[in-house]
Amino acid sequence: MKLSLGSTLVSLTSLAAVAWLCVIDSPRAVAAAALATPSASCTTYCTGGTSTNGCVATMSCAGVPSLSAGSGFWLTTSNLEGQKQALMRYTLSGRIATPWAASSTSFVCIKAPSQKMGPVQNSGGTANACDGSISVDFIAWSVGHPWALGQPLAAGQVIDVQTIYKDPPAPKTTNWSDALEFTLLP
Fold first, then answer.
1. Which candidate, 168, 136, 158, 170, places its Cα nearest to that of 48?
2. Which residues, in sequence order, are bridge partners of residue 9?
3. Residue spans of alpha helices (H) in the chain
4. For residues 70 and 99, which has the higher predicted lDDT (pLDDT)?
5. Phi, then psi, of 14 in degrees rounded to 5
6. What is the pTM of this model?
7. pLDDT of residue 40
8. What domains are defined for the chain?
């Protein structure tokens, strides 16, 4: 289709291409596109261990793992034992499946070295129930800790995350959740 602008004929496909290039180069447009994305693409893997009260902690994510966003990429671990201490750890080294301890149902699913994210959190919920949870805004946390694993985080890096939580009667007095993996966006 052609559009006449005075004496110049302009192809709508050419206008669309120019508009697209302008949008691609606009940081505001990139941020708007990131906000329009309903949820991030996280892959869960590794089965969480079963706590002594029968809880199997699971991880999920919400938001977009964009370094330019500054915040808003939430990692959550649910189905934790209530009123227990829990902590997320992440690595840039990939996946592994190592039994946590003899007679434990938990596996360490992220390769060393791994880094703690934030302070230990209380899972909330009810003691001896599986209604606890913790959350960390990974992007906001990484802004405050750019050199946590000896290098600043960069777009394209694959991040693996897993949660460890207290379970005093369990082997090593702790259990692990399942794990998740995502790729950082610019």
1. 170
2. 4
3. 12-24, 27-36, 138-144
4. 99
5. -65, -40
6. 0.77
7. 55
8. 2-35 (no CATH), 39-183 (2.60.40)
Give per-residue pLDDT as tens, 88-122: 999 999 999 999 999 999 999 999 999 999 899 99
Residue type, 169: P
Residue 130 tokens, joined: 């599986």
In sequence order, the 6+-apart residues with CB closer than 8 A to the CB of 95 are 45, 46, 109, 110, 111, 160, 179, 181
30 or 91, which is more confident: 91
Using alpha carbons, list the distances in angstroms from residue 18 to 11, 14, 15, 36. Answer: 11, 6, 5, 22
What letter does residue 33 receive in the DSSP assignment?
A: H
Which residues in 52-82 are b (16+ Cβ under 10 Å) and which e?
A: eeebbbbbbbebbbbbebeebbbbbbbbbbb
122-139 mean pLDDT: 96
Please provide the average confidence, as pLDDT, over all residues in the chain.
Answer: 82
Residues near 127 by Cβ (< 8 Å), separated by ≥ 6?
A: 81, 82, 83
